[in-house]
Structure formats: C-alpha cells, structure tokens
UniProtKB/TrEMBL annotation, chain A:
GO terms for cellular component: plasma membrane; respiratory chain complex I. It comes from Arcticibacter pallidicorallinus. Its cofactor is [4Fe-4S] cluster. The keyword Iron applies. NDH-1 is composed of 14 different subunits. Subunits NuoB, C, D, E, F, and G constitute the peripheral sector of the complex. This is NADH-quinone oxidoreductase subunit B. One of its GO terms (biological process) is electron transport coupled proton transport. [4Fe-4S] cluster binds at residues 44-45, 110, 139. The lineage of its organism: Bacteria, Pseudomonadati, Bacteroidota, Sphingobacteriia, Sphingobacteriales.
TrEMBL record, chain B:
The gene is nuoC. NDH-1 shuttles electrons from NADH, via FMN and iron-sulfur (Fe-S) centers, to quinones in the respiratory chain. The immediate electron acceptor for the enzyme in this species is believed to be a menaquinone. Couples the redox reaction to proton translocation (for every two electrons transferred, four hydrogen ions are translocated across the cytoplasmic membrane), and thus conserves the redox energy in a proton gradient. Residues 34-153 form the NADH:ubiquinone oxidoreductase 30kDa subunit domain. Keywords: Cell membrane, Membrane, NAD, Quinone, Translocase, Transport. This is NADH-quinone oxidoreductase subunit C. It is found in: Cell membrane.
From TrEMBL, chain C:
Pfam families: Complex1_49kDa (PF00346). Keywords: Cell membrane, Membrane, NAD, Quinone, Translocase, Transport. NDH-1 is composed of 14 different subunits. Subunits NuoB, C, D, E, F, and G constitute the peripheral sector of the complex. GO terms for molecular function: NAD binding; NADH dehydrogenase (quinone) (non-electrogenic) activity; quinone binding. One of its GO terms (cellular component) is plasma membrane. The lineage of its organism: Bacteria, Pseudomonadati, Bacteroidota, Sphingobacteriia, Sphingobacteriales. The gene is nuoD. Residues 129-401 form the NADH-quinone oxidoreductase subunit D domain. InterPro entries: NADH_Q_OxRdtase_suD (IPR001135), NADH_UbQ_OxRdtase_49kDa_CS (IPR014029), NDH1_su_D/H (IPR022885), NiFe-Hase_large (IPR029014). It is a peripheral membrane protein. It is an enzyme of class 7 (translocase). This is NADH-quinone oxidoreductase subunit D. Its EC number is 7.1.1.-. Its main location: membrane. NDH-1 shuttles electrons from NADH, via FMN and iron-sulfur (Fe-S) centers, to quinones in the respiratory chain. The immediate electron acceptor for the enzyme in this species is believed to be a menaquinone. Couples the redox reaction to proton translocation (for every two electrons transferred, four hydrogen ions are translocated across the cytoplasmic membrane), and thus conserves the redox energy in a proton gradient.
Length: 180, 165, 402
C-alpha cells in the first residue's frame, strides 16, 4: 500500500460492477481537486505565495501543482497584494479572459479591503471590480492561511451546482460588475 | 566623516557665487543652502565638476502653502571621494513652477524629476520625457501638494459615523 | 506592377511590438515594458511603472512617527527589517538618541539576516530564469529559517514591523539566539552547494557572462547604488562609507566586480551573503560582552513603557499617554539618513515641523532609481537576456512604486 490518499468518492449507490451518483458531485470532485491557480501577485502577499508554492508548505498537495500564468487555462485567480487604481483595469481584463467556471480568492488585507493603504491611489478591495469567492485575511496572511483559503474554495467548488453559471442570479452578479 | 569640512565648502561655494547662494545651515550635520532657479544648473555644474560631487543621490519636492514661494525642489548630492553630502533647495512659485532640468548633468535625474513633476507639478524645462510616472496619466491634480486629500473623496463605502467623525 | 506583395516589403524593416507585463510571469512584479522587437532582439523599449503606487509619502504625512514603520515594511518586502531599522535610525538621528551598543549589534544581526534573505531570493530567481529550479528550492528552504528567527523576535514573518524607535520592543530570547547560531552554522554549506550548482555551470555562465554589462561611469551617471553598482567596480557601500548602527566595529569585506554584467552581480550578491554571515558571527560574539537585558535606549519620552508599568506606575502612565497622544516635542529640523538596503542606498529624507507627524517624508528608493536604466540598456539585447537582466537588478515592485 502506498500512502497516497485518494479523494473520497461522493455518496452514491454501489453494486457489483457499477457505482451511481449524481453528475454534479463527480464534476465537483474533479474540479475541486485540480484547481489551476493564476497567481496575480503584485506585492508582499506574492512573496508569501512563493513560500506557499515552495517545498515547505507545498500547495501542490492540494491539486494546484501547476500555476497557470495564462488566464485562459486557469480556474482560480489568486489576487495577492495591493491593487492600485492604475492596475484595476488590468485585473478586470485578466478576469474577463479567464474561461468559466472561474473562481477568485482575494489574498490579504489589501486585495480584500485596501488594507492599511487608505489613499487616493489604491482600490479599496478588488470586489469593486470583480466578484470574489473567498477572502483571506492577514497582512500578509501566513502560508497556512493561504492554504486554508484554497481549501475553503475547494469546498465551494465541490458543492457548486452545475447550473449555477447559467442561472439568472449569476448573470445578474456579473452584470453588476459590467462583465458580460 | 568627510575629508572636506562644511566650513570649507561654504567658503568655496560662496566665494564663487557670492549672494546668489544663501541660507546656509547644517541640520544634523548636512550642509544645506538655497539658490534660485536661474542659478541652479550653474551651482550643480560647479559642485559636480569643481568640488567633486559626482553622485546625484536624490531629487524631490516639498510644499509650504504659506510661503511666498511655496514649491521647493530639493537636491541631494554626494561626493564619493570626499565622502560628504550637500543639500540644495530651490523655491518656486505655486502656479506653473518651472526649473531647468538636471538631466544633462546626471542621466539619473530623469525619473527623479518625473516623480517630482508627478507629485508637485514642477515643470523641468528641457527634460526629454516629462510625463506622469507613478499616478495615472489622466490625473489632473498633483497629489503631494498639501491641499490634496489623502483619502479618495469619491468613496461611498466609508461611513464617517463609524469612525467618530 | 504585378510584383507580389511580399517582395515589396523586403526593403522595409518590420518590427513587432511586444507588451511585456504588467502581469507577465517573468517580470516578478507589476511593471510594464512596451518593447519594439526585431525578431528576438529588442530595438527599443518604454517602461511604465506605478501599477502598485500606494502613496506612501502622502500617508506618512498623516501618521505619527511610530506608525510609519508598518509602511516601510511594505516597501522592500524581501528585506523589510532593513527598512524598519533605517526608519528608526532616521527618527533617532532627528531626536538625537544614542542607542546602546547591544541594541546596535542586535540591529546588525537582524539587518544582515534581512540582507541574506533579499540576496538569496534574487540569486535563486536568477537561477530560475536561467533554467534551473533546484537552486531556488534549496535557498527558499533556508529563507524559511530566517523567517522563523523573525517570528521568534517579533512574531511576524514577512512584514516584520520589527523594533521601535530607540531599540527593540523586547529582548531576543534564548530560542532566538539558538536559532540564529544554528542558521549561521547551517547556511554556509547550503550556499556552497548553491554555488557549486551555478558558479561554474557552463549553461549559467554562458547565459550571464557579458550580459547587460555596465561600466562604472554609466552606473554612477544613473545614480545606481548597491550590489549592482559594486558589480561595476565601484566600492560604495553605505555600511562602510557612513557607518550606522556601529558597523564600524565590524570586520567585513565589500566585494566588487569588474564588468558589471549579470554574472558579476550574481557573484557580488553571493559574496555579500558570506560577508553577512561573518558580520552576524562577530555580532553574536560582541553581544556576549555587552550587559545582558539591554534592548532599548533609555528614552522614556519616545519609547513606550511596558504595559505592566503603565497600569501600576504614575510616571509610566504619563509617558504612555504623552507618546500615544502625540504630546512629545520633536525638533524642527530636517534629516537625511541612509542605510544599505538589499538593493542599494535606502534613504529617508524627513522634514519635521515639530508636530507628531512628519511634514514631509521622502524615501530614496534604490529600486526606483536603479530601474530607470532598464529600458535604455535593453535596446539591442535579446529578449531572454533582458529577462535575466531584470531579475539580476532585483527590482521590488513595492519599493519601485512606493
């Protein structure tokens, strides 16, 4: 026996030679365990993300082995660091370029709320320009906190209904941000 | 510290420029004096070529709204061989402050002057590419001037009564 | 008349415009370079910065002196303790506070650890950009150990906010000293192994030697400081030229390069890490000889008294109140103080009008000044060389944009 832990199968009906469960759960399981991160690192939190990706904390254990630097092949946008108003259109552009389904984690106080930089040039939280799924507190958050944020996102992904992205609520949410 | 004393420097500078340089002082041991925008390039050239101040440490600005000439441009020079620093100030008018560029003496002045322009609106005449550097290009105000508010006035999410104001 | 379109274009030079950044993975931060490319070669470039401009200088005008330390943390976040110490020393210089020798040596230890953590990230990333990931992983492991030392001393890993004006908030405990000693012993073999992987590696040498060579005169003309200036052969180091925090008590060498290319910058940074270890070893010896338990200057006007005294002692309560409410007088003066940061001369120009906040605070940020030559020096370079040139300049976005 190897000590590799496999993801737990969702509950279903099992018999000899077959296993039946709902499609939602299988897709959720697959998505949750291979989230490809897009690190959008601007400042200090990006350095902590480097530590998170490094050997000591190893984000790869949770199925995020491959940081995707192209938005088109990424599932999870990790916004780490201060987003200045000059940067906001770039961030929005990156979000629009990502394919559905896409999730966003705001790592650190700056991405969440502007942090200690309550100044004319800093965007007071990225949720002014794009929708956010998980907020990670800290200035900067410790690598454990970033890992915890990813795990929380995995919970969301695992339980997301298949139809959510087609629902009217979701469209309304995107419309609120002016994203089609 | 340095091989050349501040007194010697004062003597050399004032024997060359007489009353065109003024307000000598030494806050925390660093020789400081003022000059006018007509003289500044000549002063800098003299310091660089004759007094061996080969290194431009910094250019920055300051704003004193109550003064007659409110906008200041501050140069820090450093002589590596003598290991001594000097600070030069030039004060300018508030509306359309202009001063000749130091770009031709030190290429490093390029971004320092752009930053000063960005923050204080000082026009450096002869600068090859005087654009905003840190702030957005479409900004019209100069944010480091004292009247400019720190916080974004357009914010709607910040309720003053939560902050006791 | 009937000639095909392709022949028409032969005499016209075709260049492409390449937009490098602001979210490009090889730029290590948010800066944009719009490059005009002729095939693989860069013809010209324009740098755009300011993508994380956070208005430090404006915020600093609205904060009391002791609340500016967290801002300096976030400037060069690879070596934030140097920024913290630099700021504390600036305020001390303004107020005329003399710190005890033990505090100076403690600061030296922390600053040299920070320098190591800065240089190792830079050299590790240089390795990654030239195609070798393993060296980076070896060094990053050691960086975790430095962060553990910081945690032991101040509780934070990255944005440390370490120390106070006048000294430290608490003494180093025994675990911290043990960890520092262990780190000093363990780090040298790891660095040797890292050097074995890179210094004489044919691939690494071919990628870096002669790339982005800068002569000393040009470097001085562009106001370069720090390891990249020393790589050009100028032996300017603030630690030696204007010793602060009792650096004059230490015996260390300042490595200089000859050609100013990427390889020399790498070598200078590596050697500086050995020298930092040397300094830390000396500082540990010197601390032994100083009176134990001294970790701040005796300045009740400036240094917050311990909490238990505030609750039990009238005098301490008054001082606490005065400091927190900003009732302490400060001289009306201006100060320029500089320290040798990870990337060069980190200067603080502080103009004080006697209030509790600075009237004007300007940071001389080495990354900002070092980076301005980048677009200019990139022209004529191959794109892949320009990338390693960027990583060897070690531009930290937070420091660049302030």
């Amino acid at each position: 026996m190897s000590d590799i832990k496999l993801a737990e199968a969702p509950p279903g009906i099992e018999g000899s030679g077959f296993f039946a469960t709902s499609f939602d759960k299988v897709v959720g399981l697959a998505r949750a365990n291979s989230l490809w991160p897009l690190p959008f690192a601007t400042s200090c939190c990006g350095i902590e993300f480097m530590a998170t990706m490094g050997a000591h904390y190893d984000l790869a254990r949770f199925g995020s082995e491959r940081p995707s630097f192209s938005p088109r092949q990424a599932d999870m946008l990790l916004v780490m660091g201060t987003i200045a108003k000059k940067m906001a259109p770039v961030l929005r552009q990156v979000y629009i370029q990502m394919a559905e389904p896409r999730w966003v984690i705001a790592v650190g106080a700056c991405a969440t709320s502007g942090g200690i930089f309550d100044s004319y040039s800093v965007l007071q939280g990225i949720d002014e320009v794009i929708p956010v799924d998980v907020y990670v507190p800290g200035c900067p958050p410790r690598p454990e906190a970033i890992l915890s944020g990813v795990l929380r996102l995995q919970d969301l992904v695992r339980n997301e209904p298949m139809r959510r992205r087609n629902s009217d609520e979701y469209k309304e949410l995107l419309n609120k941000y002016g994203i089609q | 510290m340095g091989k050349i004393s501040n007194q010697e420097l004062i003597q050399k500078i004032s024997s060359r420029f007489a009353d065109r340089v003024f307000a000598f002082s030494e806050p925390t041991g660093l020789l400081t004096f003022e000059t006018s925008k007509e003289e500044i390039i000549e002063v800098l050239t003299f310091l660089k070529n004759d007094l061996d101040f080969n290194f431009l440490t910094d250019i920055t600005g300051i704003h004193y709204p109550e003064q007659e000439l409110p906008i200041g441009v501050i140069y820090h020079l450093h002589s590596f061989r003598q290991n001594v620093r000097v600070r030069i100030k030039v004060f300018l008018e508030e509306q359309q402050p202009t001063i000749p560029t130091a770009f031709n003496l030190w290429r490093g002045a390029d971004w320092m002057e752009r930053e000063t322009y960005d923050f204080f609106g000082v026009q450096f005449e002869g600068h090859p590419d005087l654009r905003r550097i840190l702030n957005m290009d479409d900004m019209v105000a100069f944010p480091m001037r004292k009247e400019f508010p720190l916080e974004d006035p357009n914010r709607v999410d910040k309720k003053d009564f939560f902050f006791g104001r | 008349m009937n000639e095909p379109a392709i022949i028409k274009n032969l005499d016209r030079k075709e260049t492409t415009t390449l937009n490098l950044g602001p979210t490009h993975p090889s730029t290590h931060g948010v800066f944009q370079n719009v490059l005009e490319m002729d095939g693989e070669r860069i013809v010209s470039g324009v740098s755009t910065i300011g993508y994380i401009h956070r208005a430090f200088e404006k915020i600093a005008e609205h904060r009391p002196f002791y609340q500016i330390t967290p801002l300096t943390d976030r400037m060069n976040y690879c070596s934030s303790p140097i920024n913290n110490m630099g700021w504390h020393m600036t305020v001390e210089k303004m107020l005329g506070i003399q710190t005890p020798k033990r505090v100076d040596y403690m600061r030296v230890i922390i600053m040299e650890l920070a320098r190591i953590s800065d240089h190792l990230v830079c050299n590790g990333i240089l390795g990654v950009d030239t195609g070798a990931y393993s060296g980076f992983l070896y060094l990053m492991e050691k960086r975790e150990h430095i962060y553990e030392i910081y945690e032991e001393i101040c509780g934070a890993r990255l944005t440390t906010n370490i120390g106070r004006v006048g000294g430290f908030e608490r003494d180093f405990n025994d675990i911290a000293f043990a960890k520092i000693k262990k780190f000093v012993k363990d780090y040298v073999p790891v660095l040797k192994e890292f050097e074995d992987l890179f210094t004489r590696s044919r691939i690494f040498m071919d990628r870096t030697i002669g790339v982005a060579a800068v002569d000393a005169q040009t470097a001085l003309d562009y106001s370069w400081t720090g390891p990249i200036l020393r790589a050009c052969g100028v032996d300017y180091d603030v630690r030696a030229n204007e010793p602060y925090s009792s650096y004059e008590d230490f015996d260390f060498d300042i490595p200089v390069g000859t050609t100013g290319d990427v390889y020399d910058r790498y070598m200078v940074r590596n050697e500086e890490m050995y020298q930092s270890i040397r300094i830390i070893e000396q500082a540990l010896d010197k601390i032994e000889k100083e009176p134990k338990g001294v970790f701040h200057a005796d300045v009740p006007d400036i240094y917050l008294p311990p909490k238990e005294e505030v609750y039990n002692n009238m005098e301490a309560l008054i001082y606490h109140f005065k400091i927190v409410m900003g009732e302490v007088d400060s001289p009306k003066t201006e100060v320029y103080h500089c320290v040798e940061g990870g990337n060069g001369e980190l200067g603080f120009y502080l103009v004080n009008d006697g209030g509790r906040t600075p009237y004007r605070l300007h940071f001389r940020r080495p990354s900002f000044i070092n980076y301005q030559m980048y677009a200019h020096m990139s022209s004529g370079m191959l794109l892949s060389d320009a990338i390693i040139n960027l990583s060897s300049l070690n531009v930290i976005a937070g420091e660049l944009d302030a």
